[in-house]
Design brief:
The complex is a heterodimer of chains A (251) and B (428).
Chain A: E1 2-11, E2 17-26, E3 31-35, H1 42-50, E4 55-64, E5 67-68, H2 74-79, E6 82-85, E7 92-96, H3 97-111, H4 119-132, H5 137-141, E8 143-144, H6 150-164, E9 168-172, H7 180-193, E10 199-204, H8 208-212, E11 217-222, E12 225-230, H9 233-250
Parallel strand pairs in A: 3-10, 3-11, 6-9, 9-10
Antiparallel strand pairs in A: 1-2, 1-4, 4-5, 7-8, 11-12
Chain B: H1 5-16, H2 25-41, H3 57-60, E1 84-89, E2 92-93, E3 102-103, E4 106-110, H4 111-114, H5 128-132, H6 140-148, E5 153-157, E6 165-170, E7 177-186, E8 191-197, E9 203-212, E10 217-223, E11 231-240, E12 245-253, E13 257-266, E14 272-282, E15 286-295, E16 301-311, E17 315-324, E18 331-341, E19 347-356, E20 361-370, H7 374-382, H8 387-403, H9 409-426
Parallel strand pairs in B: 1-6, 5-7, 6-8, 7-9, 8-10, 9-11, 10-12, 11-13, 12-14, 13-15, 14-16, 15-17, 16-18, 17-19, 18-20
Antiparallel strand pairs in B: 1-2, 3-4, 4-5
Helix pairs in contact in B: 2-6, 7-8, 8-9
Classes of the chains: A alpha/beta (251), B alpha/beta (428).
The structure holds adenosine-5'-diphosphate and magnesium ion (MG).
Residues 11, 18, 36, 38-44, 54 of chain A line the site of adenosine-5'-diphosphate.
């Protein structure tokens, strides 16, 4: 599904190397987790994959089902099935959440050669998905993420994911700022989308999210590289001993 | 202070290209006095402080600069709205295209029709509110209008009005130089919605004096017409009585030169005045909103909300002032002017001012100028929304704050649709 090979990335504005050769392969239907200390490059990886400006790929490749991601505009990446749940969802005053979602859903359908979803169909679908995530009608009407609490923002990300039904989902610290109940809701939302050949890359700083979303593979990222990969037990190891032991072991 | 010789010359050149229309006693007096005011003030010149952001030359020169007529197949603004239509073509009243000048609760007349009379109710307002608006800042183009207006509409609202009055301004001649002067008198407890749309002429000088009596309401929505080469200098002079409401919204798209002045005087307690504008300029566009709100009563509220989207070298100007006179306690004054610059070639020039002589007031103002929010743009694109569509969404969101000032939902939707149309015609 997602193939990343020898990815080297530096900042556009300054000569600073952030990713220093990332190799990663997420097979269809699997959940991979990336853990790592702050500043190790996890968000950078998610941004580079989704096409944010400000980064330069100096070496390596990234493909989604064989499509060269790095050659595509952000909206084209979304249309072929890539989704990033942002660590910091952006507030957009003046754009209604519902308008935004409908525009996004229909833009993607159009890009895939499908007919636009009509207003009634769309409403029915969004109401159902919103209910599952305990997102009330008011949140749908408000401008995108404006005045949302941290937890509401994260649930709104998952709602978008549920509506867009991407093939490859990257979740960047979706657990940060969530209380236990909200985390459970988010995890249920993610788990509902598991299977069906979908790939997940769950970026998290802590192990606790992985209690709810069981990963198939866990990677440890440090200083722009994946330094260790293993099964779910690797996450427990981090939880117990912190990153120190693992990092000194691979150093 | 004596005027500089070049200013006198420019003023006399302009006046010699005009002729005072024949008038009966009431109007002849007003016109003569206005002509004197023009000569005393002199017409605007490039060095005038009040015109430092907007070159007045083309608005002042004796002949109107040529302006091609812009043909398009877009449905006319306010098309589906039930209203009383009054049509002017290049500033000339078009009787055949207009509805009969009558309506429930309304007394409507043409200035040209009543000009010969010796007395008329409009005497108490025509040129009177304009004169009040000449202090503390000169507005010579308005005085010129009072002196030379060829026609205009005089409306007196006495009771319940069943539909909006709609002034429609067509532009057919490439060299037309129209001067119209309207007077609106909304009597106690009455209310009127006035719509205006169209480019009007190659060059348009329009004054509207609005007297809103106690507990009366005046709602105004206008769209200035899409002709790229048109020029316009417009003035609104409004005087508000106790517990009255004045709300005005202007959509300015295209036009080489637009200067919209709005002068509002809150003279009765508990009155409310909102003035808002959304402007879209692409290329050879200069759009200036100059607003002056005077609080001269207790517990009044005023809002100024102006948004401009500029690209390809367009220029936007905002000069806005809130003056709170001694004794105008519990004033609530708000002013915001913002521009969204879609590229590096465009510019926004703003001069927000507060002058306050009362102690118990809450006044705030803000002015910003910026580009599209890159984080928001990326967020939308990451959800699959193409860059141009995302830019339009953010642009409309930026303008929404001004459009939302329109109280009536139908009119608000109409203005939003026009903005959307303008954007979609331009997005790649
Ligand atoms: N736009 C940027 N400007 C400056 N430094 C950046 C930028 N983006 C990332 N970095 C730096 O790159 C490193 C990795 O950051 P990030 O990818 O956010 O890490 P993580 O998500 O693992 O905490 C950090 O040292 C961070 O400061
Ligand atoms: Mg991060």
């Amino acid at each position: 599904m997602l193939e990343i090979k020898g990815l080297n990335v530096k900042l556009e504005e300054e000569d600073k190397q952030i990713l220093k050769g990332v190799d990663l392969s997420v097979e269809a239907g699997t959940v991979h987790a990336i853990m790592g200390p702050n500043g190790s490059g996890k968000s950078t990886l998610s941004y580079v994959l989704s096409g944010r400006d400000g980064y330069v790929v100096t070496e390596g490749s990234a493909t989604l089902e064989g499509h060269d991601l790095l050659d595509l505009e952000p909206e084209e990446r979304a249309a072929i099935g890539l989704f990033l749940a942002f660590q910091y969802p952006v507030e957009i005053p003046g754009v209604g959440n519902m308008t935004f979602l409908r525009t996004a859903v229909n833009a993607q359908r159009k890009a895939r050669g499908l007919e636009e979803m009509n207003a009634t169909e769309f409403l029915k679908l969004i109401r159902q998905k919103a209910k599952e995530l305990q997102i009330d009608a008011d949140m749908l009407k408000r401008p995108v993420n404006v005045g949302f609490s941290g937890g509401e923002k994260k649930r709104n990300e998952i709602l978008q994911m549920a509506m867009l039904e991407p093939k490859m989902c990257i979740l960047d610290e979706t657990d940060s700022g969530l209380d236990v109940d909200a985390m459970k809701l988010v995890a249920d939302g993610v788990n509902a989308l598991r299977g069906a050949g979908r790939g997940f890359l769950v970026i998290t700083h802590y192990q606790r999210l992985l209690n709810h979303i069981q990963p198939d593979v866990v990677h440890i990222m440090s200083d722009g590289r994946i330094v260790k990969s293993g099964g779910p037990e690797l996450a427990l190891e981090v939880e117990e001993n912190g990153y120190g032991d693992i990092l000194s072991e691979v150093a | 202070m004596a005027l500089a010789q070049p200013k006198i010359t420019a003023t006399e050149e302009r006046l010699s290209a005009l002729r005072l229309p024949e008038s009966g006693v009431w109007l002849a007096r007003a016109r003569g006095a206005a002509q004197d005011r023009v000569r005393t003030m002199g017409l605007p010149a490039a060095r005038d402080e009040y015109w430092k952001f907007t070159p007045p030359g083309t608005l002042v020169q004796p002949e109107a600069p040529q302006a091609a007529v812009f043909r398009h197949d877009e449905a006319p603004v306010f098309d589906g709205i039930e209203r009383l239509k009054i049509v002017f073509v290049d500033g000339v009243f078009d009787a055949a295209a207009s509805d009969p000048l009558e309506g429930e609760g309304l007394q409507i007349e043409r200035l040209a029709d009543v000009a010969a009379q010796d007395i008329h109710w409009a005497r108490d307002l025509y040129g009177v509110l304009e004169t009040r608006g000449q202090t503390p800042v000169d507005r010579p183009l308005a005085a010129l209008n009072t002196a030379y207006a060829s026609d205009g509409i005089l409306i007196r609202v006495t009771g319940h009005v069943s539909k909006p009055v709609s002034l429609i301004y067509h532009h057919e001649s490439t060299s037309s130089d129209a001067i119209l002067h309207h007077v609106m008198k909304v009597e106690e407890g009455a209310s009127l919605t006035l719509l205006e749309n169209g480019p009007a002429a190659a060059r348009f000088n329009k004054v509207m004096e609005v007297d809103v009596a106690d507990s009366a309401a005046f709602h105004h929505v206008r769209a200035q017409g899409r002709d790229h080469e048109r020029r316009a200098a417009t003035h609104i002079f409004a005087r508000l009585g106790r517990e009255s409401t004045f709300k005005s919204f202007t959509l300015t798209v295209n036009g080489k030169m637009t200067r919209n002045e709005c002068v509002i005087e809150l003279t009765g307690d508990d009155a409310v005045a909102h003035v808002a504008g959304a402007a879209l300029g692409d290329g050879d566009f200069h759009g200036d909103d100059t607003v002056f709100v005077t609080h001269d009563a207790v517990n009044c509220e005023s809002r100024q909300v102006f948004k401009k989207v500029l690209r390809n070298g367009a220029t936007g100007v905002f000069q806005g002032k809130i003056l709170v006179k001694p004794g105008a306690q519990q004033t609530d004054g708000y002013q915001i002017s913002q521009s969204l610059l879609l590229d590096g070639d465009s510019q926004f020039l703003a001069k927000p001012e507060l002058e306050i002589y009362a102690d118990d007031v809450a006044c705030s103002h803000g002015s910003t100028s910026g580009a599209i929010d890159e984080d928001a743009l990326f967020y939308l694109r990451a959800r699959g929304i193409p860059g141009n569509v995302a830019t339009d969404l953010l642009t409309l969101a930026f303008l929404a704050q001004a459009v939302d000032e329109i109280e009536d939902e139908t009119l608000r939707t109409e203005m939003a649709a026009r903005l959307e149309g303008w954007l979609s015609r331009r997005s790649g």
